[in-house]
Amino acid sequence: MASPGSIRPVATGVFTMPPDDTTAPHLLGGACDRGHGPFFPRPTYCPRCLDPVHEVDLGGHGTIYSYTVVRTRPPLGFPQPYAVGYIDLEEYPLRVFCLLDPTCLDELKIGRRLRLRVGPFGDDGSGEPLLRPLFTVAEEEG
Amino acid sequence: MTTPVVIGVGMMPFGKHPERTIVDMGAEVARAALLDAGLAPTDIDMGFFSNVLAGRLFGDATIGQNVLWEVGVNRIPVVNVENACTSGGTAFMLACNAIKAGEAEAVMVVGSEKTAVPQLGLINSGQTELDTQLGLVAPAGFALRACRHMADYGTTLEQLALVAVKNRRHGSLNPAAMYRQLTSVEEVLSSPMIVDPLTRLQCCPNADGAAAVVVASPARARRAGLLPGDPRWVSVRAALLATGSYENPQDLLRWETDYRAAALAYERAGLGPADVDVVELHDAFTIGEIIHCEALGLCPPGEGGLLVQSGATTLGGRVPVNVSGGLLSRGHPTGATGVAQLVELVQQLRGQAGARQVEGAKIGLAQCMGGDKSGDTKSCTMVVLGR
Q: Is residue B123 part of a domain?
C-alpha cells in the first residue's frame, strides 16, 4: 500500500497535511479582513462583501450534531458500511459535514467529542486512492 | 396580472420500463396532454422539458427537442431544464412566467426520466462537490435530519414508517403508481437498512416515467372551449422557485428555504394552510414528508410525526398528503416527478381521481425540493392550483 505521503488529498485547502504521525491535522476555512466568516469550506471570495479571503485554522476537535451510517452501495471505494455526520467545531461556531471513522460505529452518539484525522480513505472514482479527513472518537481526557 | 390555466395533462404508469426510451415516454405523455387540452401541435408556442440524469447515464443532451418533434411541436422556443428533483416544478414555473409575460399563449411542459438502470448508485448532489467526495449521498442527508428530529422532537421509528404505509395505501388506488401493494409498519421497519434509520421501504424507488401538462393564458383557455368555473378550469394561483443559502451553523430540523417558499406561495395565492384540500410533496424519504408538512404549516414545527399518526394526512383525513402514493409509491423518475405532482393535483381538482378522489377538492398544493448544499437545499418549488 502506498504511504500517505504519496497519496493526493481529496481537495486542497480543506485540511492541514500533517508532517508526521504525531501532529494532529486541522480543518481549514476562510474569512475576509472585514471579519466575515469563517466559512467552511473556504470560499474564493467572501460571499458577504466579495473581498478576498484568507485561510483560517478551524482546529481539529468537535462534537456530533447528527450522524448516520450508510449501509449500502458505498460510493468512491468507501468501506461498507461507512459513517458521516455534522460536527459542531469547538473553536468556531461552525457545523461541518464530514466522514466519521467507520471503525468506531458503536461509539457514535449525538454530543460525542471527536477529533480529526487524515488518512487514505476510498478513491477518486477510478481506483486511485485519496487522503480524506475523517473524525474519530477523541481519547478520554485525564 | 394574468393567471395561467392548466388545460391539459398527460401521464403514464411509472415503474421499470427497460424497453422504453426517455423520448418515447415523453412523446406518449405530451400527445396525451395535447389530446386532453384539445389542442393541435401547432397551437403550442413554447416548450420546457425537464430531465436530470440522462446526460450522466446515457450521454444524451437537449432531449426536449427530440421529444417535442415526435409530437409535431417544433419551430418554437424549447428549453431544457435541470434543477435536481425540482426540475419539473421549475419547468412549470418558467412556463407560467412565459404566459404571464405575454411571450406565449400555450406552453407544453414535459418531464421524462429513466433511473431504473443498474449504473445508477445512490444519487448525490454533484460528483465533484466536497460534500459528495466526503460521502454525502442523498439518503444520508435525509437520515441526518431524521436522527436529529428524533432526538429533539421525539419522532419515532413507527411514525417514520407510517408515512410509507400511508403512501403505499394511497398508491394502491393509483393505476399510475409503481408500488400498489399495501405494506405495514412491521414490514417497513424490517426491510433492509439503507442509511440509519431509513430502511429500504422508506426510500423512494428509482423508476422510469414521464408526465406532461399544457398551461395556457386565460384567453387561450377560453378559445379551447373552457370557461372559468368549469371543473376543467384549473388556475395557477402560485408557481415559484426558491433557493437556499449559506447559514452556519445550519439547523437540520428544518429547511429555512422550505418555510420561506411556503410563506411566499400562500401570500401569492391569497390563502393559508387551512385552505388547502390536497397536497403533493417531496417524500423521497419518509422524514422528508414529516418535515415538509411542518414547513407547509399543516402542523406546528416538530409535530410532523404526530400528524401522520393522527390520520389527518390520509385520504379522508383533514388534509390528505400524497394521495397519488407520492414518490415513495408512485416512484421517482427525477425529472418527471414535479410534473407528475401537478397532473395528480389537476385530476383531483377536476374530480377525475377515481378511487383516490379527495371529495370536493378546490385547492391543491405541490411542493418539491432538490439538491443538498451546505446543509440547505439548492432548490424548492411550490405550486398552488385552484378551481
A: no
